[in-house]
Amino acid sequence: MQVFRHFGLPAGFALAVLLPATCSAAGNSSVTVVVSALASTSSAVKVYFYNAQETFLTKGGYAFMRVVKPAGQRQVSVPVELPPGDWAVAITQDVNNNDKLDKNLMGIPTEPFAFSNNVRPRFAPPGFDECKFTVGGPAKTVSIALTQ
Prior knowledge:
By secondary structure, this protein is mainly beta. The chain is built from 1 helix and 8 strands; from the N terminus they run ββββββαββ. The strands form 2 sheets. Strands 2, 3, 5, 6 and 7 form a 5-stranded antiparallel beta sheet that branches. The protein has a 3-stranded mixed beta sheet with strand order 4-1-8, with no helix packed on it. The longest helix is centred in the C-terminal third of the chain and has 4 residues, at 128-131.
């Protein structure tokens, strides 16, 4: 399952906050991504935001990402401003703090991960359409439970 290869970010990106280049304050909607069931109360949680089906789960294909530390909690909230449209989220937690998503020989993640709409892949990674949610209008909360 090579689709998870995009999670192997260089060390310089570990605590970076990358914002979408096309984002402007006007017309954006508030979205809060709430990630629960964290495996660790201290390891970094990486939240990848995608707005294109073609680049979903491809290396560097995300529109932007955020890294948050749980600060002793089993849940984190990530508030963002997103332009209207369809979005999908992929999440990983780097429990061993080596700044990459560890995988087994088959390419399947051995560290916790999750997708928006709480999609749980069985034999293949999910598609953008399975994970997407629509942004536009009033504030939205997207709740996602991490897989263990």
